[in-house]
Give the backbone structure.
Amino acid sequence: MLLILVMVLTQGPIELAPPTDITAEDRPNDAGGNVVISWTKSADDGAGSDAVQEYLIFRAAQDEEFQQIGRTRKGGEEFVDATTQDGVEYRYLIKASDGTVHSEPGMSEVVVSSAQWFHAGRISMLVATLVISILILWFIRKAKRGEKLFIRRIAGLEAVDDAVGRATEMGKPIMYIPGILDMDDIQTIASMIILGRVARKAASYETPILVPCTRSIVMSAAQETVKEAYVDAGRPDAYDADKIRYLTDDQFGYAAGVDGLMLREKPGAIFYLGAFYAESLILAETGHSVGAIQIAGTAQPSQLPFFVTACDYTLIGEEFFAASAYLSREPLLLGSLKGQDWGKAIFIIILIIGILLVSFGFETIISLLSTGQ
Amino acid sequence: MKKQIPIIITFIAGMVMILQYFIPHRPFSDIQQLFNTWYVIIAVFAMILGLGNLLKIHAIRLQRRPKGWWYSIVLLLGFAVMFIAGMGWGIERGSLFDFLFWNTHLPMSSTMFALLAFFVASASYRAFRARTSEATLLLVSAILVMVGRVPLGNYIWDKLPLLGDWIMSYPNMAGQRAIMIGIALGVVSTSLRIILGIERTYLGGK
């Protein structure tokens, strides 16, 4: 006991090794106002006396005193100061601390934050977007000139007419489910486009079309789309706005509501086209149980197996986005499909070259094709 | 004019959103947030339309009394109770609204979700019937993955979990990535068609 007391009394104040190699740089590819400060850990952080508990970050603008602006836990080697003013010169001090005692400070060079006019980490994405866009526009132009374009047969889309026809023969309505996401999702937008085609077909056959929606804004868009389709088909009087109804925003509440509708209305054909999650199988199995011909399409890879299992036809990923062009058979739209296919061919070639290069140790290709956040 | 104005708005909005992805500088960096705010404002107004539609349809059902009309009473009563509870006593933790949410809405949602287990069983039965070579392949892969992920798999053969992981990491992942590439191209193509006004079905065009 006495020995411990003597040791404590004779021990001097703990001295912490300071952090080293302090650098402060403007954060690249941002809208300004950010500086990234990085350093090498103190020798007493995770080693030595292992007394460091945190790092304190101080900042001084031109001709100003240093003020503490933040702290990081032990082990930290980076801090982002998101409160800088662009064009102002700053210096940073970093101190290691055990909670009471601070180390000698390490200081950075002067740094100035700024905004960039181009995101340098997204060059590969820009190139890919440009190449695909040029290809698509090129084939649209070819289609405009009247050149015949071959598009492979898509069984699920060939079946759309049959499904509507079958429902008509059976005297049953069609049900169209546009997914559970809102209008800000590209799948819902694509779904509304296909709805226009299906509704036009339904209008010409005088078959009622039910569209239960999980978002109010989707309901409004679907009502307008179906209404326009009925006008185009020359049957505006047959349009019934109440067939396109809002159920609920709740995922499983919606599934229960749609299941109820299926069991009561017994539709002859059901279309599941849009974004789906866990409710996909609940809906598709109920649709199967009422004997409807079912066509599904989504860009959610995790839900595709459920639709493939429970539906008669499934549009997988890109086929779903090709549906509108395929159904319309309009040269301009088909041209865009052709461009899309050529884009895919280019990606396949790049993938094969990339695999070969990486296999032989040329890993620079990975950073060349990566996209910055 | 009815079609031209939406096409112009779509073109401008689409191009601005593409530009903001590549230009981090202000004002482009703030545009996505601004557009999201506008979307929320529009969505709130649409919500009123949605509720109006819901109440109207169920009021008509009460009037016409078709099969199952009493479910409409449940819906309208449920709506009224939750609306009064929320507007009258707030939606904070411990409020009547909160109590009703946790004790009625949540159990019902969970019940619907739980039904998935039975639907998975019935769908799996149909999918796994080995009537074609593809279905047989699916059946064999599914059994290897499923058995490899439970202790029994390891007990039967200690390499079975590794085999299951290999199926998920290589053939399955390769297939998923191929689908994802197709989807990405489809999204670009669809977006271009809409932004350039080539696709105008949603406006009633042919």
